[in-house]
Specification:
About 65% of the residues lie in helices and about 0% in strands. The protein is built from 12 helices and 2 strands; from the N terminus they run ααααββαααααααα. By secondary structure, the chain is mainly α. It has a two-stranded antiparallel sheet. It is globular and about 60 Å long.
Length: about 350
């Protein structure tokens, strides 16, 4: 369990110390955020704030993970490495998108086809590799069965699994991206979900089927390939995002950009897939789902009826235009996210207890 503590502390320290250095570097190069003219007026003051801050917590997470392994002398695992690969790969796509926005001084970066192609390449590579590398018990990092708190139902096969994994990766990446519209909102919400996955990984490790001979009820064990290492990755992400939040909260000194939002979405999807909690992620990351649905509803309503349901989508901007301050929106949305995490963890525990 020392690995979990080490990874979290190292990730936190690196972003607390490293983010201001990144801010200075980005400001010196003039890599500032482009602000839409049709958004809330208060956002105009944010124009020019350094962006691509996701670089800070991506690097911090990777360094924290490998530093922890070096300090403790423990080995890496395929599950942990695959989640890190997915995070870094999606972050690279986001970085290219951010870089083009900055260089060309426009709100759109990569063309839609190019951006989607990059996400598909990273996502398919992750999904295919996640079905390889079986351990001594025959468990691969991912399973071809759907899962809630554990695997359930029938096997969907490798092709459908790849499609399902891609849907999760794209949905969560875009969900975090849409949420990242107010200072600290997406970062704070992500901290909570990564904290939940740290707990889930520890619990799955303690109740792993690999330790069935020492469990009081082996029937309630978890068939997850590397639960402890997933907890280490989640802890590193939680610590790194916490440190980044110090600089990203209102008034933000730096934005994560698509570099950060796509990386966080990929990490969340990767943790859900490898921990066999795929459908539970919709509840644990409930705020991301809620904000994504607000955009779907807004677009669908306008195309079908010509009328808008919200004053502006995503949802957080609707409340800003109603007169809520940015800080009020962020704190109340954090409360909603906290409730989602509490309920999600409650269902996770209830699902385990029901099998006892």
């Amino acid at each position: 369990m020392k690995q979990i503590l080490f990874s979290g502390v190292i990730g936190l320290f690196l972003t607390l110390v490293g983010t201001p250095l990144l801010i200075k570097l980005l400001a010196k190069k003039g890599y500032g955020q482009y602000i839409r003219d049709d958004g809330p007026r208060e956002h105009a003051s944010k124009r020019g704030t350094p962006t691509m801050g996701g670089i800070a917590f991506i690097l911090a997470t990777i360094i924290a993970y490998f530093a922890t392994k070096l300090i403790t002398g423990e080995s890496t695992t395929y599950s942990g490495l695959l989640v890190l690969f997915l995070m870094a790969g999606m972050g690279l796509v986001g970085f290219l998108d951010d870089y083009i926005k900055i260089i060309k001084r426009r709100s759109l970066g990569l063309r839609a086809k190019a951006k989607m192609s990059g996400q598909l390449i990273v996502g398919i590579t992750f999904a295919v590799l996640a079905l390889q590398f079986a351990d001594s018990r025959g468990n691969t990092p991912a399973s071809t069965k759907l899962s809630f708190v554990t695997d359930f139902g029938w096997t969907i096969g490798p092709v459908l699994f790849v499609i399902w994994a891609l849907f999760m990766i794209l949905a969560m990446s875009n969900g975090v991206n849409l949420t990242d519209g107010l200072d600290g909102l997406a970062t704070g919400a992500s901290v909570m979900v990564f904290g939940a996955y740290t707990f889930i990984g520890v619990w799955q490790y303690q109740e792993s089927c690999a330790n069935a001979t020492t469990l009081t009820n082996p029937a309630a064990c978890f068939e997850v390939r590397d639960p402890l290492d997933l907890a280490i990755v989640a802890s590193a992400l939680m610590g790194a995002c916490f440190g980044f939040l110090w600089w990203n909260t209102s008034p933000a000194k730096i934005f994560m950009g698509d570099t950060g939002s796509l990386a966080l979405g990929g990490a969340l999807a990767g943790l859900a897939i490898t921990s066999r909690t795929e459908l539970l992620l919709a509840l644990l990351g409930g705020l991301f789902v809620l904000i994504t649905m607000s955009v779907v509803i807004q677009v669908g309503s306008f195309r079908l009826t010509g009328k808008r349901v919200f004053r502006m989508a995503p949802l957080q901007h609707h409340f800003e235009l109603k007169g809520w301050s940015e800080v009020l929106v962020v704190v109340r949305f954090w409360i909603i996210q906290g409730m989602c995490v509490i309920v999600g963890l409650g269902l996770f525990y209830a699902g385990w207890a029901a099998d006892k």
